[in-house]
Task: structure prediction
Amino acid sequence: MVTVTPERPADARTGPVGRVTRSAVTTPGRLSLVAVALLLVTAVTGIVAALTLQAKRDTLDDLVAHREPLAAAAQQIFRSLSDADATAASAFLSGGVEPAELRTRYEFDIAQAGSALAKASTDVGGDPLASAQVEVLSQQLPVYSGLVETARANNRQGFPAGAAYLREASALMRSKLLPAAEKLYEIDYDRLQTEQESARSVPWVVIALVVLLVAALVATQRYLTRKTNRLLNVGLVVASAAVLVSLVWGATALLLMSGHVADAERNGSQQVDVLVQARINSLKCRADETLTLVARGDGPGYEQEWQQLAATLVGDGEQNLLRQAKALASGDAATGEVQQAVDNAAAWADAHRRIRELDEGGQYEDAVKTAIGAEPNSSATAFGKLDKNLLTALNAGREEFFTKTTKAGGALTGLVPGVAVLALVAAAGITLGIRERLREYR
Amino acid sequence: MITGHRVRALAAVALAVPALLLTACSVSGKPVDLATVTSLDRPQPAGVEVNPPTTTGSAAAVPPCDPAASLRPAGPLPAPGAMPGGTTMKTIQDRGRLIAGVDQNTFLFGFRNPTSNALEGFDIDRVRDVAAAIFGDPGKVQYKVITSAERIDALKKGEVDIVVRTMTATCARWVDINFSATYYVAGQRVVVDRSSPITGVDQLGGKRVCAAKGSTSIQKLREAPAPPEVVAVDNWSDCLVMLQQGQVAAVSTDDTILSGMVAQDPNVKLVGPRFTEEPYGIGIPKQNEDMVRFVNGVLEQSVARGSWAASYAKWLGQAGGPAAAPPAARYRD
Result:
C-alpha cells in the first residue's frame, strides 16, 4: 500500500508542528515518528527502572547501615538504663558499702547508655518526635547519675536521706528516662518497618512502563509486517529480546530480594522486636522486684506491675512474648536459646514467689537474700540467665537480619547497570531496525 | 588636571564599589540554632503534690476528748510466751510474729541503717519492747513500712497489729483507732537553710513549705496565720531532699523529725519556738482494746525498767530533746 503524498508549496510549510503533522501522513514520516516515540518510551523506562532499582538498593543498604543499628542502639539505651536502676536498687538492698561488682555493673550501664545515646542521636534530625526523646535522655541522664551519687554519699554516712535520693532518682528514671527510651525504640522500629515495606513494595510504575514498551514494540512489528510483508525485523527483535531479558531478570531479582527481606523481617527484625519487648518487660520486673523490697511493703504498685508484666514472660496466653519469639525463631540454635529463656523465666517466677512468701511471712532478711544473693536458685541468678538468653537470641536475630538483608541487596547485584545496558541495546535495535525499513523508501 | 566632571565620576565609582560589595555580603538567615535550654525540669521525689486538697475525712463533728488519755492496763502483764487464750495477744503469739507498721525514712525514730540494713530508732525500740513482752524475743517482728497517710487505713484493715510511727494522738483519729498512752511529746517547729532569714512559722506566708501527706503538721500549716504553699510528699526524708535541692524554703513538722534532719545536714537549722504539742501514741485497731491495755502495760514496764530512758539517751539525748523524763501516762479507764 502506498500513501499519496499531497503536493504543497514550499512556503506553506509553517513551523515544526505543521511539519510533523504533515510528515505523519506519509509512511516514512510515520515510521520516523514511531521510532522517536519508541526511543522515548525506552529511554523513560530505562531511566525510571534504573532509578527505582537504585533506590531499592539504597534502601537495603540504609536498612543495614542505619535503621537496624539505630533501633538496636535505642533498645540498648533502654536496657542499660533499666539495668542501672535495678542495680542501684540491689546495691542499696545489700547494705553498707555496695559490693564492687554491683558498682562496676552500674558504671558500665551508665557508660553503655551514654554511648548508645550518642549513636542514637546521630540520625534524629528529620524526626521531631525522635529528637524530643533524645533531648529528654541527654538532659536527664546526668541528673539521674547525680542523684544516685548523692544517694551514695549519704548512704556511706549512714543517713536515711540516701534512700530518699535513690527514690527520687528511680522516680526520674521511671517517669522520664525509660519512657523516652521506649518511645525512641518504637520510633526507630517503625522507621525500620517502613523501610522494609518500601524495599518490598512492587514497582508498579516501572512494570507499567515495561508493559507499555513491550506492547509498543509488538504493535510496531505487526505494523511493519503489514506494510512490508516481511515477517521479522532484526533490530526490533533484538530490542524486544533486550526488554524481555531485563523484565525477566528484574522480576526474578525483585522476587528474590523481597523474599529475603521478608525473611529478614520475620526471623530478624520481628523476632528481635519481640525479644526486645520481652527484655524490656523482664528488666521492669527485676526493678519492681528489688524496689518492692527497698520500699519494704510500701510499694503495692511495684508488685502489681510485676504480676502484669510477668504474664508476658511466663503466662499461658497469647501475650507470652517468649512463646511468640519461639514461633518466629529460625534454626535450632535460636529455638534452643529461646527455650532456655522460657525455662529460666519459669525459674525466676518461682524464686519471685518464694521472695514474696518470705517477705509476707516476716522473713525479710531471707527474702532479700533470695532476691540478690548468688545462690543457684536465687532470683538474681535466674534473672541473669534469662537476660543472657535474651541477649544471645537478640544477637542471633540481628545476625539473621543482617545476613538476609545483605542477601536481598546481593539479589540486585548488577541489575542497575544491566538494565541501563539493555535499555541502550533496545534503543540501538529500534534505531537500526526502523532505519533499515526507512532506507527502502529512498 | 582633573575636571569636576571626572571627580564626580570617580566619586560615583568609589561609592558604587563598596555598595556592590555590601550587597554581595548581605545575606538573609541566621547562624544555626544552638539548642539553647531556657527552662528546666527539676527532679522531684515520687508523689509530690503542691497544695493538695484537704483530706480531713471525719471533719464532721469530732466528739471532744483528751487525746492523750488511753485505756488503763488490766493488772500485771502475763509472762512472755504465755498470753491468755482468746486475746489479741494470743493470736499474735500463735502467729509467731508481731506485725508493726513503721517508718524507715525518719532518722532517729524509724529508719533503715544503711550499713546494717536493719530498722532502728526510738519508735523501733518501742516495737521491740512490745515483741519482747509477747514472745520474750524482741526480734519476732514483721515490719511493714507505711507512709504517714497510710497509718489509719492499715489499722482499720487489720494489716498491722500496731503502728509506731511518730503518730500524734488526736480526737479525729480516736474515732477510727485506739491509741496507747503517750510515749513521747513532740512539738511542731520549722527547719530552714542555715543562711535563711526565716526565724519562725509566722514568716512562712506564701513560701513553699514541705510536709508529709496525711500528717497533722500539714493541717497545722494550713491553719497558720500566714498560710504557706504546702508541698506534700510521701516521706519525711523527701522533705530534706527538697530542702537540700532548694526546691522548698522550709520544712515544718515535729521537732523530733526535724532534729533527725539537722543531724544529717549541718547546713540546715531549727528555728522558732514549738507552736503545737504532739503527744505520740502507738496506734492499735479500734476493736482490740485488750491489746491497748497490754501495750500500755508494756510502756509502763519499759519506763519502770529503764529501757525507755536508755532508748531516749541513745537516739534523742544528743539531738536536744526537751526532757529526759517520760511523759506521765493518763488513762480514760
DSSP finds 13 helices and no strands in chain A. The domain at 65-200 of chain A is CATH 1.20.120.1730 (Four Helix Bundle (Hemerythrin (Met), subunit A)). The longest helix of chain A spans residues 27-93.
